[in-house]
Amino acid sequence: MDNGLLMQEAIKARTKAYIPYSHFGVGAALLDQEGDVHHGCNIENAAFTPGNCAERTALFSAIAGGQQPRSFKAIAIVGDTDDPIAPCGVCRQVMFELCEPDMKVILGNMKGDLRETTVAELIPYAFGPSDLNSSQK
User: Fold this and answer.
1) Which of 6, 83, 104, 131 is surrounded by the fewest CB atoms within 10 Å?
2) What positions does the domain CMP/dCMP-type deaminase occupy (predicted)?
3) Tell me: the pLDDT tens digits for 62-95?
């Protein structure tokens, strides 16, 4: 699936956002190795911290649906921003945990601007599972 089609799926996912407080919708479309697309949207909560970003919603939904971590090919993320939207730090950490470092990440906005990057480029020097065992060596 090309970047434009995956971004169109992210735009569809954005329409599902639950955003009664910020009114700032974000959509994500996660492509797995079988070619299936998993939608994610941001979901707010009055207490703020229980909310969830679009990227994590897509990843968690895919895994809850039976996909294996690191089995994803690409994710597209879209928001109504001046420049292509970028994932927050928490989402970057989750992507590092659940996706291959070279997985394609397509950042976009509602004007059609796109920027392609990878998980590794979004979170250099990431803390990962191997770091948890380093103190035991």
Assistant:
1) 131
2) 1-130
3) 999 999 999 999 999 999 999 999 999 999 999 9
